[in-house]
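Priority: medium. Attachment 1 of 2:
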């Protein structure tokens, strides 16, 4: 497969056309941003580790029956994905109190939530990803009738599967962000990336942070922490197959 012209340079990935219609070339970059792109750093090794983690998690979700945009991993930093029309909502999923929810309601860190909390933000760096509800998203034309219900259904399934997979790696899934896209036939499928860039993960036992919070709060080395997540996922994958 050949890389074509640049479609879009994102914060952590660059998207290119390919010589096959319906497929895009995704390059994971050595870049980390925080505060919706306002803080940007070159971090050697980040692209490789995130591509590997995302590859493990998307292959796992696919094996459990979730439809996604993932097609194949071509190299350490390159994936081929299906081209989808991205729904411009960040779907935020929370199992325990942390981050903005913890702050908003002054909750104890990692308080177990009575049920999984799903909320949406409108994807816009310029507006700082404002929180948006389904009625607003419908009214503003970002989603169509029925989309929110389908997104919620898929999100809860994905959350259950990821909680289980991370627990096998001795990791607790605190919260995370998903994105969905639409295929030309209108079907909604999981898109974008799942990695410690958009998941809060803590060690199940010690509650040590193993995600992008170490970069956001400057408390540790990002690649070392991401490599630890990858190592645990790889080791638990080996165990699952013996
Ligand atoms: P919070 O609202 O607490 O800041 O974030 C909740 C969860 O969603 C965290 O796991 C965080 O990593 C993820 N998240 C929220 N917004 C973004 C975003 O703009 N980019 C990325 N990569 N993750 C996000």
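Attachment 2 of 2:
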């Amino acid at each position: 497969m050949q890389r074509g012209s640049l479609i879009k340079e994102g914060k952590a990935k660059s998207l290119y056309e390919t010589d096959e219609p319906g497929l895009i070339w995704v390059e994971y970059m050595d870049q980390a941003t925080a505060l919706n792109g306002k803080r940007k750093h070159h971090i050697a090794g980040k692209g490789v580790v995130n591509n590997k983690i995302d590859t493990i998690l998307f292959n796992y979700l696919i094996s459990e029956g979730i439809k996604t945009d993932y097609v194949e991993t071509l190299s350490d930093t390159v994936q081929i994905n299906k081209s989808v029309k991205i729904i411009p909502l960040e779907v935020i999923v929370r199992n325990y109190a942390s981050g903005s929810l913890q702050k908003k309601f002054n909750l104890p860190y990692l308080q177990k939530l009575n049920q999984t909390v799903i909320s949406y933000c409108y994807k816009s760096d310029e507006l700082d990803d404002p929180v948006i509800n389904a009625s607003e998203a419908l009214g503003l034309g970002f989603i169509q009738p029925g989309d929110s219900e389908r997104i919620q259904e898929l999100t809860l399934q994905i959350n259950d599967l990821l909680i289980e997979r991370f627990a096998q790696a001795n990791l607790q899934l605190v919260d995370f962000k998903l994105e969905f896209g639409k295929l030309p036939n209108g079907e909604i499928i999981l898109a974008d990336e799942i990695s410690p860039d958009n998941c809060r993960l803590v060690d199940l036992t010690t509650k040590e942070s193993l995600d992008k919070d170490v970069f956001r709060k400057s408390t540790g080395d990002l690649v070392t922490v991401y490599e630890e997540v990858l190592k645990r996922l790889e080791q638990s994958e080996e165990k699952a197959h013996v």
